[in-house]
UniProtKB/TrEMBL annotation:
Pfam families with a match to the protein in the record: ABC_tran, BCA_ABC_TP_C
InterPro entries for the chain: AAA+_ATPase (IPR003593), ABC_AA/LPS_Transport (IPR051120), ABC_transporter-like_ATP-bd (IPR003439), BCA_ABC_TP_C (IPR032823), P-loop_NTPase (IPR027417)
Top-level taxon of the source organism: Bacteria
GO cellular component, one term: plasma membrane
Protein name per the record: ATP-binding cassette domain-containing protein
Alphabetized PANTHER family for the sequence: CONSERVED COMPONENT OF ABC TRANSPORTER FOR NATURAL AMINO ACIDS-RELATED
Domain ABC transporter: 7-241
Swiss-Prot/TrEMBL keywords: ATP-binding, Nucleotide-binding, Transport
Annotated Gene3D superfamilies: P-loop containing nucleotide triphosphate hydrolases (3.40.50.300)
Single annotated GO MF: ATP binding
Length: 243
């Protein structure tokens, strides 16, 4: 792993009306790392991902691979190498799984049509869990399969940074294990840097190289996961509230 940050966030603020939701975040994501972000509901985690992925605007600076990317639209950011999944599992219900993933590779990257179909097939193979379902429409898929479709769409854009918003929420323990294995392979085999917003400590501890705790729009503590989890401020504010 090199020390070069793939993403730099400086003095990032976001307010809704008079309410300050992000209060000046400063952090970097190391290229090749898995950064975990956790914190209570309403801490600002999804808002942060929404700003980095261009869905909403904030004030401050976001640099990706050394270049400012604030103000770019989501599809432009996808083409530059930033992909994400959403807390609510969604896919195009009227397209087949294969067509859904093609949308990622065709519209989210600069691949031509044939290459985009090939790449979509490769990513479906890589994810593996949708074998035999490639030509079905995901409208009635169970949560785990929908999450797999959403992940395959994101991977199809050929991201160098992938942001996952609570990907294990609502999954069974066995499904969570499968998902964790997949995230590890995306990081290690595809070399994708990952920001993982997650509540489950088991998932965070099993996957993350770095951990950041968001609390009321501020970074409460960040660092090596095992140390962050032992930090008294975290125990008081975050874990303390749940136990
Ligand atoms: N569109 C919005 N308008 C007003 N307030 C919002 C909006 N989106 C989020 N918020 C508020 O911002 C805060 C952070 O929300 P969010 O980023 O979704 O938190 P998290 O993902 O950590 O649970 C919450 O208090 C939420 O109510
Ligand atoms: Mg959220």
């Amino acid at each position: 792993m090199t020390a070069a940050p793939i993403l730099e966030v400086r003095d990032l603020h976001k307010s809704y009306g008079g309410t300050s939701v992000l209060k000046g975040l400063d952090f970097e994501v190391t290229k090749g790392a898995v950064l975990g972000i956790t914190g209570q509901n309403g801490a600002g985690k999804t808002t942060l991902l929404n700003i980095i992925s261009g869905l909403i605007s904030g004030t401050g600076t976001v640099r990706f691979e050394g270049k400012p990317v604030g103000g770019l639209a989501p599809h432009e950011l996808a083409r530059r190498g930033i992909a994400r999944t959403f807390q609510a599992a969604t896919a195009f219900p009227d397209l087949t799984v294969r067509e859904n993933v093609f949308c990622g590779s065709y519209f989210g990257s600069s691949m031509g049509r044939d290459e985009a179909w090939d790449h979509a097939a490769r990513m479906l193979d890589f994810v593996g869990e949708l074998k035999g379902k490639e030509d079905l429409k995901p409208g009635s898929f169970r949560l785990f399969d929908l999450r797999m479709v959403m992940l395959a769409i994101a991977l199809a854009t050929r991201p160098r940074l992938l942001m996952l918003d609570e990907p294990a929420g609502g999954l069974t323990p066995a499904e969570t294990e499968v998902f964790m294995g997949l995230i590890r392979r995306i990081n290690q085999e595809l070399g994708v840097t990952i920001i993982l917003v997650e509540h489950l400590m088991k998932v965070i501890m099993g996957l993350c190289d770095e951990l950041m705790i968001l609390h009321n729009g501020n970074i409460l503590v960040s660092g090596v996961p095992a140390e962050v989890a032992q930090d008294q401020r975290v125990i008081d504010v975050y874990l303390g509230a749940e136990h």
